Amino acid sequence: MKAEAEGRKPRADALRNRERLIDVAKLAFAEVGPNVSLEEIARRAEVGIGTLYRHFPTRDDIIAAVYRREVTQLADAAKRLLDTRPAGDALHEWLRLFVDYIATKKVIAPALASMAGGTSALYESSIDLMKGAIADLVERAIAAGDIRPDVEPFDLVQALGSFAMGVSTSPGWETRTLRLIDILMDGLRSGSSGR
Fold it and tell me: Which residue segments constitute the domains of the chain, with CATH numbers given?
């Protein structure tokens, strides 16, 4: 944004417009598909096309912003949950939120695939955020005695991905995946032998 480039804080209305554009773009990608026009996104957000281009000079920029916000919200949820719940409960709830993230990623996947510059840099930065969030959750849950001490953070991410990808094309996949997370958490509890 121009104000940030000049060292000023962006105006409140500019921030609202930016967030509204991201919200609307996410819905438009889901409803219309990856080829939804930027003009349509601006129209749905009730802003002029110039406002959209000020915030997102290219289609790739708005696609990346939608994805980054989803990742950031999930990563930030880890700290919020750890601040408000016992560590094991925070981990459990975060794993459930991860299912929402996967559902959103499925919705915007076609738009992500259409990015001219590719997604490797975008995914690389998101992986770092996710690793940090899950590592904090697991470390705190182990330290609190809420889960077994041999749990590895990446094992949980891999399990979640497997749960979701294995059933994500069939109706009701989210409900089944949430049930599998509950079963997984029962197995992770510190009283479980794991064998």
Answer: 1-57 (1.10.10.60), 60-195 (1.10.357.10)
Question: Is residue 8 very low, low, confident or very high in pLDDT (cuts 50, 70, 90)?
Answer: low
Contact 88, 170 (CB under 8 A): no
Residue 147 pairs in a beta bridge with 189
How wide is the angle at C-alpha 143 spanned by C-alphas 139 and 149, nearest 5°? 75
Rounded distance between C-alpha atoms, residue 146 and residue 107, angstroms: 34
Residue-level length of the chain: 195
CA 139 vs CA 97, 163, 164, 190: distances in Å: 18, 23, 24, 13
Residue 60 and residue 68 in contact, taking contact as beta carbons nearer than 8 Å: no
30-89 pLDDT, tens digit each:
888 888 999 999 999 999 999 999 999 998 999 999 999 999 999 999 999 999 999 999
The answer to whether 148 and 194 are in contact (CB under 8 A) is yes
User: Under DSSP, is residue 1 helix (H, G, I), strand (E, B) or coil?
Assistant: coil
Query: Across the chain, what does the average pLDDT equal?
Result: 86
